[in-house]
Amino acid sequence: MWRIGVQRSIIVYSNSRTLVTASKNVDISGIFPPIVTPFDTDESIRYDYLEENIRRWNSIPFKGYAVHGSNGEFAYLSKEERVEILKHVKKFATDDKVIIAGSGCESTRDTIQLSNEMASAGADALLVITPCFYKSGMSNPAMLQHYTKVADHSPVPIILYSVPANTGIDLSTEVICKLAEHPNIIGVKESGGDVAKIGLMVHKTKQHDFSVLAGSGGFFLSARTVGAVGAIAAVANVLGSEMCQLDQLFKDGKTKEALSLQHRIIAPNAAVTRMFNVPGLKKSMEWFGYYGGPTRSPLQPLTSDQEKLVKASFTENGFL
Predict the structure, then answer these.
(1) Which label site among 19, 44, 130, 215 has the fewest CB atoms less than 10 Å from its CB?
(2) CA–CA distance, 161 with 130 (Å, rounded to integer)
């Protein structure tokens, strides 16, 4: 049996580098949409549309919001923009929502700095993606050192983020299980899709306060079956109620209904992730009454043929 409530007393460093004590209770079980960043045609951020989207999402029983995941185009945002967006999300979200903020940078030093800024801006927990530019140097010891230093210096809990499709780095089970021992590392978002790996991580970390989140709606039910406690899933931006329903069906033991809904979600999920990524996700949001808007360059909008394929994945499965 896995534990989903996390309460820890930890020693962390403040910006002044003096030791401070923090006590956190962060439950990350449930569904989190990795929210998109709404841009205008000139690629400036539209905070008014961000507010509209969040106010609609607030009516869905999400556990909270993940800000600056891959679908938020954080790689194309300045650090100042990342912090400012988080402040607005915190302002617009209802008080019951857990706010997870992406604070990963290429260097450990920058990640520590941004993590502290994100915590000050209201993040309840931080999602830290693997550094990847110097790929050949990102060994297990490098990853252990990086995440340990970040966790040591963060005033809020850390969630590891493995997304090999984007980074080319699959954070190893060995590293994840070792980092699970750290009192300020509370979980991992596993986006690789290896359900056996998810199950093994759950099994090997069961003695720690550590949770595994599925990184996609396409394998969510399988991940839940082997012990994942929730998901940060792109498709939840548009099928939020359905993803929450799927989670509830699993918890209620309604296997047949859960399996049927999971099957219907697979194709739309693929369309807005591995097939057409953020442009596909943003376009699909328009069909469900949200603001998607353009992406930042160099990402390109969908062609008309691509748009038809994305729309068909929703229509053929009864969502449109």
Answers:
(1) 19
(2) 6
